[in-house]
Amino acid sequence: MRAAFSASRCAGAARTNLVVAARRVQARQLATRAAGGPAAPRTVAGSDSSSSSAQPSWAIKMLYDGDCPLCMREVEMLMRRDAGKGRIEFVDIASPDYAPERNGGITFEQAMERIHAIEADGKVITDVEVFRRLYEEVGLGWVYAITKNKTVEQLANKVYDVWAKYRLPITGRPDLAVVMQQKKTCGPRSQGGQQA
Questions:
Q1: Which of 38, 40, 107, 164 has the fewest CB atoms found within 10 Å of its own CB?
Q2: The model's pTM
Q3: Are the C-beta atoms of 115 and 103 separated by less than 8 Å?
Q4: What does the alpha-carbon distance between residue 88 and residue 134 come to, in Å, rounded to a whole number?
């Protein structure tokens, strides 16, 4: 009975993954069209161009949950705005290729708990600062400019904390413990996104 339940849960996860994969392809196609050709923003799961001694071509690397429908709306907008510029490197933490060692040491679980980004110099940033930096890179810095005020930033981070805590159930997904268990039992990845 337990094996049947587990197989059913993994089959459901597989169907969801197909839908999400289709959305990712659609997002890349939108970004390519917005750029007017084949030069689309990079969506990378495991590579890290900052690992070499040369400075990366991107200004900020966004770690995002490609399985989150609301997150994907924001990512798609940022991809369209960044199309052809390459200022943002998009890294899908839900990808089987996600590797913490190539992304500031940020594990899958840490990335699921709150938004992270990595600046070109290797500095890891979180929470509202991530959105402020991303929006600056796509010419919409004014949207989050008020959060440069420390008091406003602290308040905005408290609001973000609530969103981060309830993001999974709000988007119709199981809580983080269940997602982590599904990653262990349904996919080839172990916790943290490394290959089993």
A1: 38
A2: 0.70
A3: no
A4: 7
β-partners of residue 83 are: none
pLDDT: which is higher, 114 or 186: 114
Q: Is 81 helix (H, G, I), strand (E, B) or coil?
A: helix
C-alpha–C-alpha distance, residues 42 and 22, integer Å:
17
The residue with tokens 């709000």 is 170
Our CA dihedral for 74, 78, 79, 80, rounded to 10 degrees, sits at 100
Q: In the predicted model, is pLDDT for residue 193 greater than 70? A: no
Cβ proximity of 32 and 40 under 8 Å: yes
CA distance 137 to 113: 24
- Lateral strand order in the sheet of 116-119: 88-92, 60-64, 116-119, 124-126
pLDDT tens-digit series, residues 168-179: 888 888 788 777
Of 27-41, 48-62, 86-100, 139-153, minimum mean pLDDT range:
27-41
